[in-house]
């Protein structure tokens, strides 16, 4: 947008409805033919998100979920009984944001929720599965204790697993440094004394400089502090709050929130490891083998981006992967569990065939479940209407009647035609002032 409108003073608007057809937009999108299906709230599957965006602009519909629409009623889904003989085609990224061992496991664990298989890029631990990595020779130590050629290789080789970067000290036993010096395993007891490194970064102490550069091909040494003054001035412009939402950095330190980590990235190149507090990398607790007696009714969001029935299930399913419980808003199906929903009555039909006051209310009520918006006609199929009364969808696809009145969509015109005993019929598509001759393009997959 900035490139196309450079020098014209165009800025982003907070009111996204200004870009809808009902506000005069022409909805002229240019879309590629990339196959990455998404489901709209009209119950239709679109080839990719851009093509859905055309209909969002034209009709005012919205994204229901990633992946193709599962138009079989969720209650009538065929669910497997077990997955012993099923093909092991995992890891699979589900439309609920969770990663499963196989398609069969996904269907078994989410029976009746209409979860479908989606592109791997939509799930946290499968996002980098097929990534082609540059031959970047910056060794990285993984939380599994192995040394990788670089961070990209570490993530692509551990497709579907929660493996993150930690200081090289934890892999030091397997890493032969060319200088023969040993890596410090921690700097908690070291006094804080800002140190400027020859790489231009500012470290909390000389110990931290060694900890974060241990095992790298280029040697980083302590230099005069004046050489880092410019970086310090630049980084201090980042102002952060102390709102707690902890994240773990690749230096195995927990930061209060993402902004505080961004400051550390600026100062010393520390990157994001995972959400939540950093865990102890050694001294593993034994994993539970049975969670049948767990009574927790609130689902748990894991630092691997997956939702589990309870903390016990989390530990059992991710044994040895250092996954921890994090705030609910970090996972897709639990993001709105504790949300204060607005009181506005923007009724939606859920995939469980129930009507909710609004989408936020629907997701909060179904915390941890994959419930999504489907066309309202599914929820009102069993309603009995008298006379010409009927529920009409709220999308804007104007039509002009023979009474020279513009109706929001053909449903409202049909209602008026019924009331007037067929005196009003369709004159043309579009508003009465601006007729539309072209048939809408079909972006359906």
**Within the largest sheet, what's the order of strands?**
2-1-3
State the total count of DSSP E strands. 24
First-residue to last-residue Cα separation: 27 Å
DSSP helix fraction:
10-25%
Task: Report mean pLDDT, rounded to a whole number.
Answer: 87
Shape: globular
What structural class do the secondary elements suggest?
alpha+beta
Strand content is: 5-15%
Q: What are the segments in which pLDDT stays under 50 over at least 5 consecutive residues? A: 174-180
Q: Please count the helical segments.
A: 9
Radius of gyration: 27 Å
Note the main sheet.
Answer: 3 strands, antiparallel
Give an account of the 3D structure.
This protein has 445 residues and is of the alpha+beta class. The protein is built from 9 helices and 24 strands. It has helices at residues 49-59, 103-109, 151-157, 206-213, 229-235, 258-268, 311-317, 359-365, 410-419; strands spanning 38-40, 45-46, 63-66, 92-94, 99-100, 117-118, 140-142, 147-148, 165-166, 195-197, 202-203, 222-223, 247-249, 254-255, 272-275, 300-302, 307-308, 325-326, 348-350, 355-356, 373-374, 399-401, 406-407, 426-429. The strands form 8 sheets. The chain has a 3-stranded antiparallel β-sheet. A 3-stranded antiparallel β-sheet has the order 5-4-6. Strands 8-7-9 form a 3-stranded antiparallel β-sheet. The protein is globular and about 90 Å long. The model is unreliable at 174-180 (pLDDT under 50). Residues 21-71, 73-125, 177-228, 229-280, 281-335, 336-381, 382-434 form the Kazal-like domain. InterPro entries: Kazal_dom (IPR002350), Kazal_dom_sf (IPR036058), Prot_Inhib_GrowthFact_Antg (IPR050653). Keywords: Disulfide bond. This is Kazal-like domain-containing protein.
């Amino acid at each position: 947008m900035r490139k196309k409108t450079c020098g014209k003073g165009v800025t982003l608007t907070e009111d996204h409805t200004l870009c809808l057809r009902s506000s005069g937009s022409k909805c002229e999108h240019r879309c590629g033919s990339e196959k990455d299906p998404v489901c709209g709230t009209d119950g239709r599957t679109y080839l990719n998100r851009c093509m859905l965006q055309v209909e969002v602009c034209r009709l005012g519909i919205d994204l229901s979920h990633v992946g193709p629409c599962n138009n079989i009623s969720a209650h009538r889904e065929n669910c497997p009984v077990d997955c012993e003989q099923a093909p092991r085609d995992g890891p699979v990224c589900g439309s609920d944001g969770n990663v499963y061992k196989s398609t069969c496991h996904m269907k078994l664990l989410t029976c009746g929720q209409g979860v479908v298989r989606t592109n791997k890029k939509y799930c946290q631990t499968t996002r980098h599965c097929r990534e082609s990595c540059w031959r970047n020779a910056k060794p990285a130590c993984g939380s599994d204790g192995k040394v990788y050629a670089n961070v990209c290789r570490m993530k692509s080789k551990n497709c579907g697993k929660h493996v993150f970067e930690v200081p090289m000290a934890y892999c030091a036993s397997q890493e032969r440094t060319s200088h023969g010096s040993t890596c410090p395993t921690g700097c908690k007891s070291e006094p804080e004394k800002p140190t400027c490194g020859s790489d231009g970064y500012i470290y909390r102490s000389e110990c931290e400089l060694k900890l974060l550069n241990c095992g790298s091909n280029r040697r980083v040494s302590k230099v005069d502090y004046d050489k880092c003054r410019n970086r310090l001035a630049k980084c201090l412009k980042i102002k952060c709050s102390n709102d707690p939402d902890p994240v773990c950095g690749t230096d195995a330190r927990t930061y209060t929130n993402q902004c505080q980590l961004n400051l550390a990235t600026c100062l010393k190149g520390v990157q994001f490891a995972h959400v939540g507090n950093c865990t102890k990398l050694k001294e593993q607790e034994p994993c539970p083998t049975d969670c049948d007696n767990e009574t927790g009714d609130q689902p748990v969001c894991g630092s691997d981006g997956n939702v589990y029935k309870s903390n016990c299930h989390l530990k059992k399913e991710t044994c040895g992967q250092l996954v921890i419980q994090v705030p609910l808003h970090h996972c897709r199906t639990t993001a709105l569990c504790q949300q204060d929903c607005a009181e506005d009555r923007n009724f939606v039909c859920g995939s469980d065939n129930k009507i909710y006051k609004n989408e936020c209310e629907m997701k909060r009520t179904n915390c941890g479940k994959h419930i999504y918006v489907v066309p309202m006609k599914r929820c009102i199929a069993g309603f009995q209407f008298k006379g010409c009364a009927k529920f009409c969808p709220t999308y804007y696809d104007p039509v002009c009647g023979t009474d020279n009145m513009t109706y929001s969509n053909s449903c409202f015109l049909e209602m008026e035609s019924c009331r007037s005993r067929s005196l009003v019929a369709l004159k043309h598509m579009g508003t009465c002032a601006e007729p539309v001759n072209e048939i809408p393009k079909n972006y359906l997959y």
